Amino acid sequence: MSSRSNFTELENPCTRWFQWSGSEGTLSYYDKEKKENIPVTLPFRFMWLTSLHTVKGYVEGKGGVYANEVVDLSKQSLNVRINKESIALGLWKDIKDTTKANGGKYAQSTYIAYKDESGELRIGNIMFVGSSLAGGKHLIDKKTKAEIELDGWMTFFSSRKSEISKGAVEISLEERECTKGATKYRIPKFKIIALDPKTNESAMTLDRQLQEYITAYLSKTQSEIPQHTEVSKEEQTHNDTIARNRAAVDAMAPLDNGEDFGPFDKDEANAVDNLPF
């Protein structure tokens, strides 16, 4: 419940929202004033601050698919929307089929500290989704898994989390091209960079500022989402059938042309991934 003392507008401390384009093999950020994507020179270095879960996607003729961000997919509800219309509401395990059938994909909203052109450390965000998150497949005619599968952010992060939390990460372009049928795309490559104590302390200061915002944001967004209720087995079966049928139709649709849209890259939003959820 809101009151005079706590009725305040939340101000996101992020200064730039970065995205990876699989069709171009580039990193960019969206400039709201210029209303265009500004390319970032690679390699690009950042310090990881925290990661949240959300949904991103694109539906031709309707626009972007998005949701609020959560820390725990098993306990906090998502409100998935196309434009301003809610298409799925609840815990991820209950809405993932409907979300995917309507063009939405799991995404990891990664908050970072980065240096701007003046060398000042600022808070930013990289939205990993599709191939930048899950990786891709190269030389599919090869026999070994190591020759075929290229890791994305999810595998890199889960396997190097301790080092990532103490150092910096460098993003560059993976030299090997990925393929999915006739579609060719590029993924980012990551490596750990040593970090001096002073820069690390500055990043931790920014993280404390960020955590204050996230705490307030989660409190606000979860309070605004209706209480999740269990659906009956019959209703869930009906919903799952609709979702499967919609997914089958969408699977036959042609791939998009990979053009950028608004603040999010629709080719990356619709990219094929290998996520287990």
Number of helices: 7
Structural class: alpha+beta
Q: State the helicity in percent bands.
A: 25-40%
> Whole-number radius of gyration?
19 Å
- Inertia-based shape: globular
Number of strands: 17
Main sheet attributes: strand count, strand direction, barrel closure: 11 strands, mixed
Unreliably modeled segments: 228-264
Distance between the termini: 34 Å
Mean pLDDT: 82
- Could you give the order of the helices and strands? EEEEEEEHEEHEHEHEEEEHHEEH
β-sheet strand percentage:
25-35%
Relevant terms:
globular; eleven-stranded mixed beta sheet; 17 strands; 277 residues; alpha+beta
Please explain how this structure is put together.
The protein is an alpha+beta fold and 277 residues long. The chain has a domain of 138 residues. The strands form four sheets. Strands 1, 2, 3, 4, 5, 6, 7, 8, 9, 12 and 15 form an eleven-stranded mixed β-sheet that branches. A two-stranded antiparallel sheet has the order 10-11. A hairpin with a 4-residue loop joins strand 2 and strand 3. The longest helix has 28 residues. The chain is globular, with a radius of gyration of 19 Å.
Set out the fold topology.
Layout (H helix, E strand, L loop, with lengths): L15 E6 L4 E6 L4 E4 L4 E16 L3 E4 L11 E5 L2 E6 L1 H10 L2 E12 L5 E9 L1 H4 L1 E2 L7 H4 E2 L2 H14 L1 E6 L4 E3 L2 E3 L2 E6 L3 H28 L8 H19 L8 E2 L2 E2 H4 L8
Parallel strand pairs: 1-9
Antiparallel strand pairs: 1-2, 2-3, 4-5, 4-8, 4-12, 5-6, 6-7, 8-9, 10-11, 12-15, 13-14, 16-17
Helix pairs in contact: 1-6
